[in-house]
Amino acid sequence: MYSCLKSYGIDGIDAFPVTVEATFGRAMPGFDIVGLPDAAIKESRLRVQSSIRLCGYELPAGRITVNLAPASQRKFGPAFDLPIFLAVLAATNQLSSLPEDAAFVGELSLSGQIRPVNGVLSMALRAKADGIPAFFVPEENAKEASIVEGLTVYPVSDITALLAHLNGSSPITPVEFDPLLILSGANQFENDLADVRGQHFAKRALEIAAAGGHNLLLIGPPGTGKSMLAKRLPSILPKLSFREAIETTRIYSVAGMLSPDHPILSTRPFRSPHHTVSPAGLTGGGSSPVPGEISLAHNGVLFLDELPEFQRQALEVLRQPIEDNQVTISRATSRVTYPCSMMFVAAMNPCPCGYRGHPKIACTCSPHAVQKYISRISGPLLDRIDLHVEVAPLEFSSLTGESHEESSAQVRARVEAARKIQHERFSSTSITCNARIPAGSLGTYCPTTEQAQQFLRRAFDSMGMSARAYDRILKVSRTIADLAHQQVIDKPQIAEALAYRTLDQKYWYEDYSL
Length: 514
Fold this sequence. Notes:
Blueprint: E1 2-11, E2 14-25, E3 30-34, H1 39-42, H2 44-54, E4 63-69, H3 81-91, E5 102-104, E6 107-108, E7 114-115, H4 120-129, E8 134-138, H5 142-145, E9 152-156, H6 159-166, H7 180-183, H8 200-212, E10 216-219, H9 226-231, H10 242-254, E11 270-271, H11 279-283, E12 284-285, E13 290-291, H12 293-296, E14 301-304, H13 312-316, H14 319-324, E15 326-330, E16 335-339, E17 343-348, H15 367-374, H16 379-383, E18 387-390, H17 396-400, H18 408-425, H19 442-445, H20 450-463, H21 467-483, H22 491-499, H23 503-508
Parallel strand pairs: 3-4, 5-8, 8-9, 10-17, 10-18, 11-14, 14-17
Antiparallel strand pairs: 1-2, 2-4, 6-7, 12-13, 15-16
C-alpha cells in the first residue's frame, strides 16, 4: 500500500515543501527512512513505532519504507515525526484517508504527545504561498503559525486528538490570530535614557545613530556610562514594523528561541554576547547551521562590550556582514544565508588599565602596552564604524545636580520623525535607512552645498580618509540634516559628522614611540 502527505523542512530561515511518502509490503520486516535524513529523522522510526503501539494500533509484519521528497535536499530535525506517523498508518490501512489540502509538522514523544519544533513561522508562510489552506502544528507552535493571515492553523496536543479530528468525531478548533500579540511589550523598556546623567555629546551621537541606523563606538575610562548608553539604545529606536517583526521572528523561530506566550517579537532585539564568544557563535554555524549573534540582532542592536577583549578572528568575521547585511555559511553538504541587518555598537577602554587621558587618575600603561591593546581593533573594522565617541568622566555636580535629562520617549519622537523622512525618500527602493544607502546613490540622496563640499574636501585631504570613511561621513551628515529637517546637507552637518571621526586619529594613528 502507498500513502503520501505534505510537510515542510527548513533551509536557513526559509521553508521548503516536503512530500512524505510511505509504502508497506509483505517482506522481511523493516522500517527504512530515505531522502537524505539526518540522525534525528532516522531516529523518528523508534518514536513512531512506540506511538503506534501506545495509541492502540498495530505495526504489521512487513517492510515499511518512508521517502522524504525531494530526495536531493537534506532534511534536519524531528518535525517530520507526525507526517511519518500518519503516512505509515495510512499505508498499513489503519487510517482511512488523509486530507490532500493540509500539511503536518510535529515531533512525537514515546507516549504520543506532540512536541514543538523550530521554524514553524517560516513553514506557515511557505504553506500559505503554496496555497495550502490547513496547517496542523504542535499546540505550543499554534500562536506562532496563526500570525500568517489566511491560513487555518490547527493546534495538535497529541495523536489521539488528531486522529479524532481526522475521522470527524471530535474536530479541533483552529487558532485565530490575536493582534495584541504584536502590541504586547512594544516600547516597554526597563532602561530609560533619562537614567544617564550628563554625557550630552554621547547622547547626541546615540540619537544620530538611532535615526540613521549607524554603527557606533564608545571609548572612555571605566564607569563613565558606556554600557549604560548602549543598553538604552533600543529604547530610542523606532518601533518594529510588522514586516520587520516577521523577519526577526523567523530567525528566532529557527533558532528555537521563541516563547509560546510571545510568538512574535514586539521590540527590537539587543544582543550582547560575552567576549569569549567564538567566530561561529557570532556568525552562526554547526553541522546543520544555526543563526549566530549577528543574525539574532537582525533589525536591532549587536553590542560588543570590552571590544579589544574579543578574539581577533571573531572581530574580523564581522567585517563582511556589516557591509553586506547578510552572512553566508558554507559547509560540505549545505550552504545557508542568514540576514543580519543590524546596528553594530561597541564599547572599549582607551588602554589596558582604562585611565589613559583621565583628568585625575594617572595611566599606568607603557606606550607599547597601549599600542598592543589598541591594535587589537583593526583599521578595516574601525573604518566600518560610522561614529567614534569619547565618553569622558563626569563631574560630581553632574551626578547630584537637578538638571533635567531627556527621556527615551522624547528622543524617540525625533528619531521616528527622521526615519519617516527617510521612509518617504526611499519609498521606491529597498533602502531602509541612511546607513544602508549604496555608494552609487550617495550623489542622489546626499546633496551638499558648495561650502559643505569644499569643507569636506579639505578634511578628506588633511585627515587621510579612506573612500569608505568618506561615504560614511556623508551618510551621517544626511542623518544629521534629517534630524534638522533640512533637504540639503550644509557645512554644519559635515562638521558635526567629522567630529565623530577624530578618535581614530587620536588613538589608532598616534605615534606611540614618542
